[in-house]
Amino acid sequence: QVQLVESGGGSVQAGGSLRLACGYFGISNSNYYMGWFREAPGKERELVASRYIGSRNTTYADSVKGRFTISHDGAKNSLYLQMNNLKPEDTAVYYCAARFGFIFSSQPSAFRYWGQGTRVTVSS
Fold it and tell me: Quick one: pLDDT at residue 114?
């Protein structure tokens, strides 16, 4: 049974930084894609960043390139999202997600496992 648990959300002013963490359980091999999604009020859930655990392949949404960094620590069974230079439009609930396999997909429906979400609020 795969479980994902996010932490690290909060409120910050524009230009500030936050680091999200996702502790995971039940993933016993590296053939997984893991990602961070976000869902803002009135908007669809979107992929922010993803990483294939079996390599260092990463992808980022254009809106966060150069500001967000996804990283993984296998020893700690954790996925991170470092968010710098935050903007009010980054305000959303952020979700950690995982899917088995090496084929990339940005669609939420392709990810089987989800955390409970952590809220990020950026004020101007």
Answer: 98
